[in-house]
Design a protein that fits this description.
Layout: E1 2-5, E2 17-22, E3 34-49, H1 57-68, E4 73-79, H2 88-106, E5 113-117, H3 127-139, H4 145-154, E6 163-171, E7 174-183, E8 196-201, H5 207-219, E9 236-241, H6 256-278, E10 286-294, H7 297-309, H8 311-318, H9 324-333, E11 344-347, E12 350-354, E13 357-358, H10 363-370, E14 374-380, E15 386-393, H11 397-404
Parallel strand pairs: 4-5, 8-9, 10-14
Antiparallel strand pairs: 1-6, 2-3, 3-4, 3-9, 6-7, 7-8, 10-15, 11-12, 11-14, 12-13
Helix pairs in contact: 1-2, 2-3, 5-6, 7-9
């Protein structure tokens, strides 16, 4: 099989999907702030959501809607500028009203429309602006890449760049297009989801294979990225499959077609996960942490996340200080049982720590590695054959500046 990126692709690269992005006044700067994605045909859908106990109104609404109606979903409305989280029953009413508004404009059933929101927690949606935005977005729906990219910009909050990708998956006897857009730069520490992410495809899936494929892809990608260790109230990833590629449906998780689709979906979500880390609030470096020599992949993932979350590691990376002591410290408190005498650490290609003892560190080489925009850390636990990779960024003064004044 082959996975080919589509140059300039967006969520509208998938046949049968249209999108738009408009400004309706949710953002104070007048930027695009409401996106709409519509399939011309009913979709099989699957979704994953935050495990934060304070789940935003759209999360509660979408969870119920996808569970009750997984084979006839048509659209998703996504707003930035207001999270509609911790808003009680009135917030749920606003989400239902948003779905109903979109359904009326699109001529579809209300339970065919999903809603995502992102922004400040604790504020209700200004429904007059939402209504205006939904009407405008419905009128501007288009299958052009320009429209797809407008939608990806409309869901941004503190993001500095949109995150979108489309790929074509070719296998023996089948070919599909998969495209996605994601947002997120802060409050990024996914636990069963990511900040906000919409993925669409023309593959023909069943509710069972859609759920399973999404779970596999997210576990290998979006669940392995962290910016600041904070899991959002709004985390949602949605997969919509309209089946327009034709051919036999992917109806078994044991089929070759299913495995090929999962590979394509995982390729896409890994790219989006890396984009989230690269655009972390105030980030100056993209950091890839690989943990090998673990007893299990789960252990490797836990250790990698501990290092990625460490404020001391992240600030050392920002300061270009090869302080390996902070790395091994995080390994030690990760919760995974390790033997310190078996652990080794590399910064890029430079070994810093060998089997529990300092290695002869070349500080000049270390400084050169840390001056790069992309930095790799490799940790060998010396306990087994399993490994995992996680993605993060450094922590700069910029992160503090952004989040000290987020509401103002």
């Amino acid at each position: 099989m082959t996975i080919e990126p589509i140059a300039g692709g967006s969520i509208t690269s998938v046949p049968g999907f249209r999108a738009s992005g408009v400004a309706c006044g949710l953002k104070k700067n007048g930027a695009l702030d409401l996106a709409l994605v519509l399939s011309d045909w009913p979709c099989v859908g699957a979704a994953m959501f935050t495990t934060n106990a304070f789940q935003a109104a759209p999360v509660l609404y979408d969870r119920q809607t996808v569970a009750a109606n997984p084979e006839s979903l048509r659209a998703v409305v996504i707003n930035s500028g207001c999270a509609n989280a911790c808003t009680g029953e009135p917030g749920l009413e606003d989400t239902r009203a948003t779905a109903a508004l979109a359904a009326r404009e699109l001529g579809v059933a209300p339970n065919a429309v999903l809603v995502m929101s992102t922004g400040v927690i604790g504020a209700r949606l200004p429904m007059d602006k939402i209504a205006q935005g939904v009407r405008q977005a419905a009128a501007e729906l288009s299958a052009t890449e320009v429209a797809g990219h407008a939608a990806s910009r409309a869901i941004m909050t503190t993001d500095t760049v949109p995150k979108t990708l489309a790929v074509r998956v070719n296998t023996q006897g089948a070919s599909w297009t998969i495209a996605g857009m994601a947002k997120g730069a802060g409050m990024i520490h996914p636990n069963m989801a990511t900040m906000l992410c919409a993925v669409v495809t023309d593959a023909s899936l069943t509710p069972v294979t859609a759920r399973s494929a999404l779970q596999e892809a997210v576990d290998a990608s979006l669940n392995r990225v962290t910016v600041d260790g904070d899991t959002s109230t709004n985390d949602t990833i949605l997969l919509l499959a309209n089946g327009q590629a034709g051919g036999a449906p992917i109806d078994s998780v044991d089929s070759a077609a299913y495995r090929a689709f999962v590979q394509g979906l995982t390729h896409l979500t890994i790219a989006l996960a890396k984009a989230l880390a690269r655009d972390g609030e105030g980030a100056t470096k993209f950091v890839e942490i690989t943990v090998q020599g673990a007893r299990s992949e789960r252990d490797a993932h836990i250790v990698g996340q501990a290092v990625a979350r460490s404020l001391l590691v992240k600030t050392a990376l920002y300061g270009q200080d090869a302080n390996w002591g902070r790395i091994v410290c995080a390994v030690g408190y990760s919760g995974v049982s390790v033997d310190p005498q078996c652990v080794s650490v590399w910064l890029g290609e430079l070994e810093l720590f060998r089997r529990g003892a300092p290695y002869d560190v070349d500080e000049a080489r270390a400084a050169a590695i840390l001056a790069r925009d992309e930095v790799g850390i490799r940790i060998d636990l010396g306990q087994g054959t399993e490994q995992a990779t996680v993605w993060t960024c450094d922590l700069s003064h910029g992160y503090v500046d952004i989040n000290a004044h987020y509401r103002t």
